[in-house]
Design brief:
Length: about 400
Amino acid sequence: MSALRFINARIVCPVGGIREGELLVDGEQIVDVLSGEAETIDCRGKTLAPAIIDVAAFKADKTACRRGGIARVALMPDQSPVLDDPGIVRRAATMGKPELWIHPLAAATQGLAGKDLAEMAIMAGAGARAVATGRRWIADSGLMRKLLAYARDCGLTVISHAEDAGLTGDAVATDGLTATLLGLPSAPAVAEALAVARDLMLAEDTGARLHIRQVTTAAAIDLIRAAKRRGVAVTCGITPAHLLLSDIAANDFRTFAHLSPPLRCETDRQACVAAVRDGTIDVIGSGHDPRGPEEKRLPFADSASGAAGATTLLALALRMEVPHDRLFALLAANPATVLGLDGGTLEPGKPADLILIDPDAPWQITEARDGNTPFDGLPVQGKVLRLFKGGKEILA
């Protein structure tokens, strides 16, 4: 039997809003009417929503994604080897199925070295859904302009890391009291706004689609908000860490709080929260970048940046206190738009990528289960009960 009838559900759709009732699935799609018999799934009042589409993760971790309600991952090109070759991109696009669909992001430059453009048209043909600069900012403005123009012609979005490397250097923290007290190498937060300003101007000049992977400062948000008003094709994302934590989280030299971009001051954090609520920020992603103890059990300045985030994304996003239909626009519908995917909503005709969740179920984030995370030990609410990809349940 390939048809499903979800009953007694609290249905949350970024387009259709929130309603009580049933949802029908026939084969791989959501439908209005079933053509035959169907298996009935009693949701017992729990929430049925689009499965999460995670933009810009650094690792496609099937088990963590299943637990986090993630059905699709846009995989950053910073892999070994780098996703700068059509054969490597094609292999990445198929390695997660059927449990997880991976959408590779092609490297913008060969080897992500920031010197020569990669063959993004060929990699798009191999399955790349967008092109990304990786963990690095492209310092050469002429090259960035060529990249944006080339991507525009290929119909691809450019996903950029926005920090002016001339200012950040080897910094591991944001300039401020915390960095000063801890004696950490730091950089001014304006490094982000400088990079965003340039990339916005080049995107406006070329007419390209630009997605800024993580925006974390009030100044950069103001620039993006103004650019959107001018009609620039720009979107931006953020992780729960930058919404819920400030640089104070690094006070005890805890390397789990070593992230890139670094955690910002409280004023910037509050600006990010406001930007989620007013619609300036389009995407909340996991930034899933798990690191082992050999990379984290080091002095703060010597440790690697990054944190696991796939299993905790939903529960932490629920703490944002935004309406749930708006929340799943941030987690599913808007990411689908960035990647040019058909999905992320519960409209008839869309792929039956679904999660059944209990938003009130309590649990505790732990390093042992969820990986290195600055939220280790935090009590949260919101569990994924079941995950469906194309109408088929993905089991743990």
